[in-house]
Amino acid sequence: MLKITPLITVVLSLFFSSLNAQQMDETIKFGPWKAMFDGKTTNGWHWYNNKGMAPGWTAENGMLVFTPVKGQGQLDIVTDTEYTNFELELEWKVSKKGNSGLFWGVKEMAEYNAPYFTGPEVQILDNERHPDAKVDGKLHQAGALYDLIEPSEDVCNPAESWNRVTLMVNHNTNTAHIQLNGTVIVRFEPHGPNWEAMIKRSKFGNKQKHNYVEAPLFGKFQTGKIALQDHGDPVAFRNIRIRPIL
């Protein structure tokens, strides 16, 4: 007879919790996929808080490419459309020592100059060379729910290689996850008490953190735009698509 020790109890609890989460994901009904980038133009995207496309962003050989432009301010871009419950997929490739981000739940507001004041972020990073990979544990590594949840493991391909990320956000069931290169590395509740508690511990809610950002509306919006970040480094995206959760 198997003796149930505290360690075995914890392991079994984690196993069945993961199994239940997977089963919950499998019951989700999706609408059809829709391309968010046609590979030839920047249609469907615009400069945050501005009309038209931001400088530095171009469509090249099936890729949405950002090349840094000095003296132009923040050059983040957002979708023309807002989304609530969805699954989004894209591939990203960042330069050596590069940093960028994928945001959702973004609102364009005159008092803010960037998406990160309202929208949570899936981190895009060169884990090997960028110093952010060593800030606050793993909270800023590639695939992290930036400054909120560390990735469970490092499955990121090296800089200048393609990485595929999937972001699923479902407010209907209050479940969400980040998948990087085929592995789910972050699971979270996208609203509610647990979500608010995480924000209060993060740089967006804890004034005691050295990198505190005053952002009272961070993570508050269940419906918002998708954003891609200018962090001053070259980055490319391709095969960007999204499908609604019904």
Shape: globular
How many domains comprise the coordinates? 1
Number of strands: 13
Count of helical segments?
A: 2
What structural class results from the helix and strand content? mainly beta
Question: Mean pLDDT, as a whole number?
Answer: 91
CATH top-level class: Mainly Beta
What is the fold-level CATH name, i.e. the topology?
A: Jelly Rolls
- The value of Rg in angstroms is 18 Å
What is the CA–CA distance across the termini?
A: 46 Å
Unreliable stretches = 1-24
Sketch the major β-sheet: 8 strands, antiparallel
* Helical residues, percent: 10-25%
- What's the quaternary structure here? single chain
Share in β-strands: 25-35%
By CATH, the superfamily comes out as: Exo-inulinase, domain 1
Order of helices and strands: HEEEEEEEEEEEHEE
CATH architecture: Sandwich
Structure, described:
The chain has one domain: Exo-inulinase, domain 1 (Jelly Rolls), CATH 2.60.120.560. It contains two helices and 13 strands, in the order αβββββββββββαββ. It has helices at residues 6-26, 193-201, and strands spanning 34-35, 45-47, 57-60, 63-66, 77-83, 86-94, 99-106, 121-125, 163-170, 175-180, 183-188, 224-228, 235-244. Strands 1, 3, 4, 6, 9, 10, 11 and 13 form an eight-stranded antiparallel β-sheet that branches. The longest helix has 21 residues, at 6-26. The relative contact order is 0.23. The model is unreliable at 1-24 (pLDDT under 50).
